[in-house]
Amino acid sequence: MNPRDLTRPHVFEKKGERTLLLLHGTGADEHDLLRLGAAIDPTASLLSPRGMVEENGMNRFFERRPDGSFVQESVLQAVDELKDFLELAIAEYGLGPQMYGVGFSNGANASAALLVMHPELLAGSVMFGSTKPLEIVPKVDLSGKRLWIANGQNDPYAPEATTELWVAELRGLGAEVSWLSHPGGHQISPAHMQEISRELA
Amino acid sequence: MNVKPHGIHHVTAIASDPQANVNFYTKVLGLRLVKQTVNFDAPNVWHLYYGDEAGRPASILTFFPWPGVTPGREGAGLTTATAFSVPPESIGFWHERAKRLGVLFEAPVVRGDSEVLTLFDNDGMRLELIAAAGDQRSGWDGVGDIPQEMAVRGLHTITLSEHSLDPTASMLTEFLGMQLHGESGDSASFDMGLGGAGATVQVQAGVAERGLQAGGTVHHVAFRAPDLLTMESWRQELLGKGVLVTEIMDRQYFKSIYFREPGGVLFEIATDEPGFDIDEPLLELGRKLKLPPWLEPSREQIENSLPRIEV
C-alpha cells in the first residue's frame, strides 16, 4: 500500500462532474463519510481515501502528540502524499476540474492543510469539527475558494478562540469563509449539513 | 381547517436498561426490533424501535433507554397507557403467557365490547392488550412461542392523563381534526378518521397529581401525516393558530414536528414516509446499529459509548 498511488485504500463512486474528496476522522476509514458526501451533494462523484498514519490501531491522516498538537512534518507529508494520490486519481478516474474537500475532525484538518498548501487542487473545503492544522501558513492566494467551517461550541478539539483567528486568516488570504456554529460538541449538525448542501447545489 | 392526522404514528418512551428492554419487547411481547439507532440529540443513548414486520406506522413503540434513570410516576400531563391490538380470543393466551413469564399484570376486564389485559413492562410502564375485532393487520410472526393468530397487530389506543378534560379535548377536536367518540364521567375518547385500532385517543381527566416523566413513562406520542408536503402545510396552520411548533426535524425514517397540548403532553406529527427500509433491507431490519449521515463519521466514537446489547 503506497499512500501516493492508487494502491492507497480508497473508495471511488462515479457520478457527476463535481468530486467530493472525503476525509474521515480518527479511527474511521474510507467508508465512514460516503453517506455524508451523498447527503451533501447527491450528484457529486465521491473519492474517499484512507488516512495512512496509525495511532493505536486507528487510522489518521497525520500524527498528533499526546497533548493534542499536530506534528507539522507529518501534516506536510500527508498533504504531499494526498497531492500525488489525487493527481493519479484525477487521471485514472477522469475527474472533472471541480473538487471540494469534505472532512470531519482529523480529515477536515487535513483538507484545510491541503487547500492551503495546494490551492490549485481544490475549489474549496467543507470542514466539520476542525481547527487550524498548520503553524506556518504560506502567503497563498485563496481568492475564489469557498470554505465552510462548521463546529460545535463545546467541541474540545475546535476551540472557538482559535477558530476565530483561523477564519480571519483565511479571509485575509482571499477565501470566502462561512463559519457555522452549533451548541453541541464534536459532532456534525444536521442543520449545518443541510445548509451547506443548499449552498453547494 | 385541514390538520387531520389519520392515526397514531408511534409512541416513544423512556426505559432504563437497554438489554432488559430488548428482551421484554422482542421475546415477551413478540414485537420486531425494526431499528437500532441512537437518540439524534444525544448520540450516546440508544434509540430502539419495535413494531410489526415492516415497521409500519401505527405499529411502532420506541424507547430511549437511560441506564440508571430515575423511575417515573404516572400522573397528569403524561400518556399513561399504551394499548396494542390483539386478535379477539387471544386474551387467554396472553394472560397465561404473562403468568408463565412472570410479567406483572392486572386481571383481564371487559371494556365496551372488548376484553382488555393490562401488563407492565420491566420498567413498570402500563401497556394494554385490547382484543379488537376487525383489525386486519398481521403483526410480526418472528417469535417461536407466539402463534401468528395470537400476535400483537399494532397500536390501538393511547391514554392521556389530565387534570381537566376541556383544554386537551379542544386541541384534539379543534386543532387536530379528531371526533369525540364518547364520554363517560371523567373520560372521553376521540377518533382519528374512522377511529378504532391505531386511531383512538383516550383522555382520562380528573387526575389530581402531575406525573413525573422519567423511567417507564411515555415521552411523546406521534400522529400520522401522509407526507412531508401535507405536514408542512399543517405546521403553517398550527403556527397560525398560535401553537408553538418546532421546525421540521429529519428523523431519517420520518420527518417530525413537535408541540405540547394544553395539559403538557408532548405531541409529534410524523410522516408515513420514508420508512425503516431507507437504510437497510426489510429482511435485515434491526440487526445492526444504523446512523444518519451526519453521525456516521462519528461511528467509532458512538459505538464505544453505547452500552452493549444482544438482539
Describe this structure in words.
The complex is a heterodimer of chains A (201) and B (311). With 201 residues, chain A is of the alpha/beta class. Chain A has a single domain, classed as Alpha/Beta hydrolase fold, catalytic domain (Rossmann fold, 3-Layer(aba) Sandwich), CATH 3.40.50.1820. Chain A is built from 5 helices and 9 strands, in the order ββαβββαβαββαβα. In chain A, α1 links the parallel β2 and β3. In chain A, α2 (72-93) packs across α3 (106-117). The relative contact order of chain A is 0.14. In chain B, the strands form 2 sheets. Chain B has an 8-stranded mixed beta sheet. In chain B, strands 6-7-8-5-9-12-11-10 form an 8-stranded mixed beta sheet, covered by helices on one side. Chain B is α+β, with helices and mostly antiparallel strands. The longest helix of chain B is centred in the last third of the chain and has 13 residues, at 228-240. In chain B, 49% of the residues are buried. Chains A and B meet through α1 and α5 of A and α5 of B.
What fraction, in percent, of the residue positions of chain A are helical?
25-40%
Total strand segments of chain A: 9
Total helices of chain A: the number is 5
Low-confidence stretches of chain A: none
The share of residues in helices of chain B is 10-25%
CATH architecture of chain A: 3-Layer(aba) Sandwich
* End-to-end CA span of chain A: 35 Å
Shape of chain A: globular
Percent range for β-strand residues of chain A: 15-25%
Q: Identify the most extensive interface between protein chains.
A: A-B, 21 and 13 residues
How widely separated are the two ends of chain B? Answer: 45 Å
CATH top level class name of chain A: Alpha Beta
* Succession of helices and strands of chain B: EHEEEEHEEEEHEEEEHEEEH
- Cα shape of chain B: globular
CATH C-level category of chain B: Alpha Beta
Strands of the widest sheet of chain B, in order across it, are 2-3-4-1-13-16-15-14
CATH topology of chain A: Rossmann fold
